[in-house]
Amino acid sequence: MTSQQDLLDTLALVGKALGNGHRLALLERLAQSDAAVEVLADTSGLTVANTSQHLQHLRRAGLVTATRSGKQMIYRLTDARTLTLIELMRQIAYTNLAEMERLVGQLFADDNADEALDPVSRDMLLQGLKTGSLALLDVRPADEFQAGHLPDAINIPIDQLEQMFNLLPKDREIVAYCRGPYCALSHEAVKRLREKGFRVRRFAEGYPEWKAAGLPVM
Amino acid sequence: MTSQQDLLDTLALVGKALGNGHRLALLERLAQSDAAVEVLADTSGLTVANTSQHLQHLRRAGLVTATRSGKQMIYRLTDARTLTLIELMRQIAYTNLAEMERLVGQLFADDNADEALDPVSRDMLLQGLKTGSLALLDVRPADEFQAGHLPDAINIPIDQLEQMFNLLPKDREIVAYCRGPYCALSHEAVKRLREKGFRVRRFAEGYPEWKAAGLPVM
DNA sequence: ATAACATTCAATTGATTAATAGAATGATTG
DNA sequence: CAATCATTCTATTAATCAATTGAATGTTAT
């Protein structure tokens, strides 16, 4: 006999999978692009064996799928709705957990400073790209950029910004984006480029949101 | 220094809270109505002390709030979006976990039987209530009914159906509803009432969904 | 005040989980 | 087919979690 509780226990597998910071980080990384275990271990700062274990956990919960490609196992998100799920968790946590609000506020402290980062909306960005009045800068690591990015974006990973900022135009406004609304990379880029005299603003979303909205990607 | 990982660790608190079948059951019970610890312990089949512990856990994650009323502590959902969150988890689990699909299929095996339960949509129900062509039956326990129910519904808790079915009309079609789309009570009611010769169908949603849609409640 | 009641706390036990290290597996390369 | 590489498995340890019990707290009724 199947009880309601069996069902909730199975559902709890999904909750358990989401109940660990490292696994959430892995899911967010996978939102950027499919990736092999070693890559995921690198970006999450875990050992390969440990990363593999966490991925098994996510796989048992049905959130990721793995396929072999040569000697690598390529992991991908099974369901795009998983990102919506995490975003909803974030919103709920933000409204109801003081700690969460504090952390987000601290991470994005610059937004409240005198020189606000003044984010660009999706519509403004689309308009600016059409008229050519904006230059678009992707500050994510090269591999994530290559796996998919916004049309006409230039890729300068944040850790190469100092060497490569001369690739950017001084005559047009620049819009920087990264992994998503809670990714700090574009904040950092705006701050640093402004110090060098560029006109820069931040796009408040990231590549996964753009793609999920059905907008063209390259 | 705040890192992205601190944020994800805090977010994982919410995931952890959702990572236990009993806690999910508590949240679903709270979707029906605010309730005291003893009531929650009763419906979840846990001891009072254990229920209290789980509620503390949910409280730390910001998902429930408690206020004292006399000697009782009344717990309530902090955020209506939590139900959306659980529903989304359910959908993702259903599509990606074979085990989940199997359990749901088993629980609602009757839906696939010869005499399908033929669920009524929200629009059909609204229409039928307006014209008076439908009688509405709420088969949840009396306390949940009293805390809030659909307009014009008659309450006959499922365990009193045998004694009280004569309250129901034979000349009109009856629509039974309960806690939500995954609650088995209305399925059971339809099955039993059909055996007694009533014309009954099931409303595929429940009280929380009706209320969340902004429809009138009593 | 005292008793009764609802809930929480504290301590304990067993179960589950996370991380580590090293061995084992599967696939490719020379 | 031996060597290499990427990943997974196994065993171990420490940490966290779930459930139980009995005591402690706060509130109401006598």
What does this structure look like?
- Two copies of one chain form a homodimer.
- The first copy, chain A, has 218 residues and is of the alpha/beta class.
- The first copy, chain A, has two domains: 4-79, Arc Repressor Mutant, subunit A (Orthogonal Bundle); 103-212, 3-Layer(aba) Sandwich (Oxidized Rhodanese, domain 1).
- Chain A is 50% helix and 16% strand.
- The first copy, chain A, has eleven helices and seven strands.
- In chain A, the strands form two sheets. In chain A, strands 5-4-6-7 form a four-stranded parallel β-sheet, with helices on both faces. The first copy, chain A, has a three-stranded antiparallel β-sheet with strand order 1-3-2.
- In chain A, helix 5 packs across helix 6.
- The relative contact order of chain A is 0.11.
- The model of chain A has no long low-confidence stretch (mean pLDDT 91).
- The structure holds a DNA duplex (30 and 30 nucleotides).
Keywords:
homodimer, 218 residues, alpha/beta, Arc Repressor Mutant, subunit A, 2 domains, 7 strands, DNA-binding
Number of strands of chain A: 7
Overall geometry of chain A: globular
* CATH-scheme architecture of the largest domain in chain A: 3-Layer(aba) Sandwich
Number of domains of chain A: 2
For this structure, the quaternary state is homodimer
Structural class of chain A: alpha/beta
Q: Compute the gyration radius of chain A: what is it?
A: 19 Å
Q: Cα distance, first to last residue of chain A? A: 51 Å
What pair of chains forms the biggest interface? A-B, 52 and 52 residues
